[in-house]
Design goal:
Elements lengths: L8 H15 L4 H12 L13 E6 L14 H10 L4 E3 L6 E3 L2 E8 L2 E6 L13 H12 L14 E8 L2 E6 L6 H5 L16 E2 L2 E2 L14 E7 L3 E6 L15 E6 L3 H10 L4 E2 L4 H7 L5 E16 L14 H10 L2 H9 L28 H10 L6 E7 L3 H12 L3 E7 L2 H9 L5 E6 L11 H4 L11 H12 L3 H18 L2 E14 L2 E2 L14 E2 L1
Parallel strand pairs: 1-12, 1-13, 15-16, 15-17
Antiparallel strand pairs: 2-3, 4-5, 5-7, 6-7, 8-9, 10-11, 11-12, 13-18, 14-17, 14-18, 19-20
Helix pairs in contact: 1-2, 2-6, 8-10, 9-11, 14-15
């Protein structure tokens, strides 16, 4: 590791010789990428312990780094660093702990009251109070706010100020999962923040407001370079609360679209932390000395969704149940989970993550049986198979494995691989016959955060089943836990029995990071950079 910039060509060549032997197993492309990194190393400010700067990267191109207006996992992670919520869900115990609130109580099934901290200051110097909570919730609850994921806030009717440090949140209807959301995707912003929104066409573009110094969190966001980087600095005045006291001076997120370039920069010290490393690359990195590699489970699941209803006027073979069933039996999900995803991955059979309240795996299941799959295709009128497009955006090799399995039963699936935002738009426009995507539930440990999102006749719903919507509505709003469990089970059984979805597997991420970094992954897939330390 080199402290500061490298200006010596001889030293640069020395580094190349030292590391090139370790890179040879990664293949020609990575060596080429690494060489390019070395060529530009004279301008590289190294990350790491010596500079007290933790640099992390993914391949996600962020045009907006603002909670409520970008639902990518990267911004979810940033929201925990830069902003605070009323409650904090302990990632180990799943218990709710006070954060901006000091206590709460249910007044009735549609009313929550919170007492608030009186010792919190926003990064812009303004003192936090009940006015900020009321302002934030009344803004995001409005349809005109343009919040990207309405499900995160569409249960809020409004918020009222009961005192300088006391608020009431009124719900539109009973919503027992409210505490989960108040401990997750509902960060608090200062009064007046969205008044700065520029006009786009005939209305304000609230997602275009600069997020700098707009939170109360352990780190303050200082700079956003769209498509390139997001910069945070330690909030030295952070209050002592559930998130603890952070110590790393700066945290930088960088966009590096090529996974092999990420690995090269990790090896050379340009970045300190990466995830979604492929299994084979992770196993090779383990032998490289200055890098820690961990495989850990996450709340994210993979699923295949079929346009089973012909939504959007698109007639596809997947409107036939036997075709969907053939696909389900053709895919070797166990092999993909074990050999590609990692040891902490597991096959799932239900449209939810196993730990979520109301999730059951006691639903119809489909074993790997290519012979049965071919028989079902023939019965559906496709004895010679058919050709179709399959859409995906994440871990190309996982979908390529699916394509390989489908080819064995004569389904020629042409991969349309694209950025998440582009694919999400096609799904909303009902333009994909079937697709493989993922969902992390915003780390909300409740079935309402996943099953209800996809099966209540929304733009993400390809089934459009009114009975499903009714069961889920009952489960989402009942205050009786058993009623919730019973109705979620009915819905999950129908989804699997009708094969509106083929649930694939739980994700298990390979994390690779600087050995100087004390970092522990958590199942909620929210890296706690604010809790990381240098050894």
């Amino acid at each position: 590791r080199i402290d500061g910039a490298v200006h010596s060509t001889h030293l640069c060549l020395g580094i190349e010789r030292m590391i090139m032997s370790k890179l040879k197993n990664f293949g020609f492309k990575l060596i080429a990428v690494f060489t390019l990194v070395l060529i530009g190393v004279g301008n590289l400010a190294f990350a790491g312990k010596s500079n007290n700067t933790l640099t992390w990267t993914t391949d996600r191109d962020l045009d907006v780094a603002l909670p409520y207006y970008n639902n990518t996992r990267e911004v979810v992670v940033m929201s925990y660093m830069g902003w605070d919520t009323l409650l904090f869900r302990n990632p180990k115990t799943f218990e709710y702990e006070p954060l901006l609130a000091t206590s709460y109580k249910w007044v009735d099934t549609v009313t929550l009251e919170f007492d608030l901290r009186n010792d919190v200051t926003f990064h812009n110097g303004k003192k936090f109070s009940a006015d900020d909570v009321v302002y934030t919730f009344n803004h995001v609850a409005s349809e005109e706010s343009g919040v990207l994921t309405r499900r995160n806030v569409n249960w809020i009717k409004n918020a009222e100020r009961l005192g300088d440090y006391k608020v009431r949140i009124n719900l539109l209807k009973p919503f027992p999962a409210a505490l989960e959301y108040l401990a997750g995707p509902t960060p608090i912003f200062p009064v007046g923040f969205w008044e700065k929104a520029p006009i786009a066409g005939s209305k304000k573009d609230f997602g275009a407001v600069n997020p700098v110094n707009s939170g109360t969190g352990p780190y303050k966001i200082t700079k956003v370079v769209p498509g390139e980087s997001v910069h945070f600095e330690l909030n030295k005045n952070y209050f002592k609360g559930a998130k603890g006291k952070s110590s790393i001076g700066k945290i930088v997120f960088r966009v590096i679209s090529d996974p092999e370039a990420q690995i090269a920069e990790l090896i050379t010290g340009g970045v300190d932390w990466i995830w979604d490393v492929s299994k084979d690359k992770a196993e090779q990195l383990e032998s490289m000395g200055p890098i820690t590699v961990v495989n850990a489970p996450t709340m994210r699941i993979s699923y295949i969704q079929f346009n089973s209803s012909g939504k959007g006027g698109n007639k596809t073979p997947f409107m036939d149940y036997k075709v969907r069933k053939a696909v389900a039996h053709a895919i070797n999900r166990e092999a993909i989970a074990k050999h590609l995803v990692g040891g902490a991955s597991a096959v799932i059979h239900s449209a939810c993550y196993p730990s979520q309240f109301g999730c059951t795996q006691d639903v119809p299941q489909y074993s790997y049986d290519p012979g049965l799959a071919k028989k079902l295709l023939a019965e559906a009128g496709y004895p010679n198979g058919f050709e179709t497009d399959i859409y995906a955006y994440r871990q190309r090799e996982f979908t390529e494995a699916v394509i390989g399995d489908l080819k064995k039963i004569d389904i020629q699936a042409n991969l349309k691989y694209m950025q998440y935002k582009a694919l999400r738009g096609l799904v909303w426009e009902s333009k994909t016959p079937f697709h493989q995507m993922t969902w992390g539930s915003y780390s909300v440990n409740d079935v309402s955060a996943i099953t209800s999102h996809f099966f209540k006749n929304t733009r993400d719903d390809y089934a459009m089943d009114p009975q499903l919507k009714a069961w889920l509505e009952t489960a989402d709003t009942s205050t009786d836990p058993q009623v919730r469990i019973d109705n979620y089970k009915k819905a999950l059984t129908r989804i699997s029995g009708s094969l509106y979805w083929l649930p694939m597997f739980t994700y298990a991420k390979y994390y690779a990071f600087n050995k100087d970094l004390d970092f522990t992954p958590t199942p909620d897939e929210i890296p706690q950079f604010y809790a990381a330390r240098w050894k």
